[in-house]
Amino acid sequence: MDLLVTMKKIAVLMATYNGEAYLVEMLDSLAAQKNVEFCCYIHDDGSVDGTLDIIQNYIFRYPKIFFLLEDDRVCGSAKENFFYLMEEVEADYYFFADQDDVWLPDKMEKTYAALKELEKRSYDKAPLAAFCDMYVTDQNLNVVYPSFIQSIGRSISHTKYTQIVIDNPAAGCTMCFNRNCRDKALEIFDKNNVEMHDVWCLMVAAVFGRVCGVDEPLSYYRQHEHNEMGASHEGIGQKIQRNMEDAGEGALLLGKEAFRRQKFLLAEEILKLRDVPKKEAQILETFVHPEKQSRFQRILFLKKNEFNRRNHSIWLWLWL
Q1: CB-based contacts of 276, cutoff 8 Å, min separation 6
Q2: Which residues, in sequence order, are bridge partners of residue 143?
Q3: Residue 208 half-sphere exposure, CB side, CA atoms within 13 Å?
Q4: What's the CA gap between 108 and 106, in Å, rounded?
Q5: What pLDDT, in 10s, does the model give residues 19-47?
Q6: Which of 28, 130, 257, 289 is the most interior residue, by most CB within 10 Å?
Q7: CA distances (Å), origin 76, targets 15, 17, 83, 286
């Protein structure tokens, strides 16, 4: 498919698949965005329900906002679909959008303003990204937790690449990023080495440019049985109980090792990119080779370079 060229500065990228249950509310919330001109580009991944009919209806109603990338491409996952959308759509700024959320009317305006403010404090070619918080809701949009970021035990202030690689604070549907971030993100060598498109784009911005968070919930993050990624709140007692159960079943060490491997692969994928800044390259190279340090040296290295999380970083450093 030929690369699309949008006349709008801002592109919203939406990946859909069998989303008829909640898609209307999401598209309505997009059409209701205030003080921002944009185009929403949608790529459907082979829906067999009424998703495409809904999209065509909104294209008819809002021909200057909604566009469907019509082809036979089946990506197979949300991650691959969003990467495909990034490849096919050109714009100055990008938002990711999920098919089942609802955005508050000022969501795009406030997140875009944060990105533009970051732009003023950065060099011209810097990859930049901003993200916001969300209300966590049930399938009927009843708020069950006032902060998505807090619900997953993370911090909106953790925007350094050493923190993002450990605990990404941003869901893709909260992100806004610039063209430089998109272009750099598309240099990826192996998408299989990154868990999702959102953490990859955020890491690219953090390593090569800057990231900021808007400490305000600006959308409703709907939880239902078909979420590809979700929010789960776990208290200290629940965490201890889960770890004890995992230890009893022999799964604790396997889980820790899978976590380590996932983080190392993400860092290694960043290191494959061109022109990684020298300091960041040295730190990430040391991070992915724990065998080159003693346990004490490792803990000091992780602490000094802020490979930390919102709570209990010392336990992380002990086994990472």
Answers
A1: 207, 208, 270, 284
A2: 137
A3: 28
A4: 6
A5: 999 999 999 999 999 999 999 999 999 99
A6: 130
A7: 11, 10, 12, 34
β-partners of residue 84 are none
Q: Is 126 exposed, middle or buried (0-12, 13-18, 19+ CB in 10 A)?
A: middle
Instruction: Provide the token pair at 280.
Output: 């960041």
DSSP string, 128-167: EEEEEEEEEE-TT--EEES-HHHHTT--TT--SHHHHTTS
In sequence order, what are the residues at sequence separation of 6 or more whose Cβ sits closer than 8 angstroms to the Cβ of residue 150? Answer: none
- pLDDT for 261-316, tens place per residue? 999 999 999 999 999 999 999 999 999 999 999 999 999 999 999 999 998 899 99
- Residue 74: alpha-carbon gap to chain centroid: 21
DSSP line for 275-314: T--HHHHHHHHHHT-GGGS-HHHHHHHHHHTT---SS-HH
Closest CA to 96 of 229, 187, 215: 229
* Confidence at residue 249, expressed as pLDDT on a 0 to 100 scale: 53
The single residue listed with the structure tokens 């008829």 is 20
User: What is the widest separation between alpha-carbon atoms in the chain?
Assistant: 63
Q: Are 54 and 23 in contact (CB under 8 A)?
A: yes
Give me the amino acid identity at 309: R
Q: What is the pLDDT of residue 312?
A: 86
Domains assigned to the chain:
4-222 (3.90.550.10), 236-319 (no CATH)
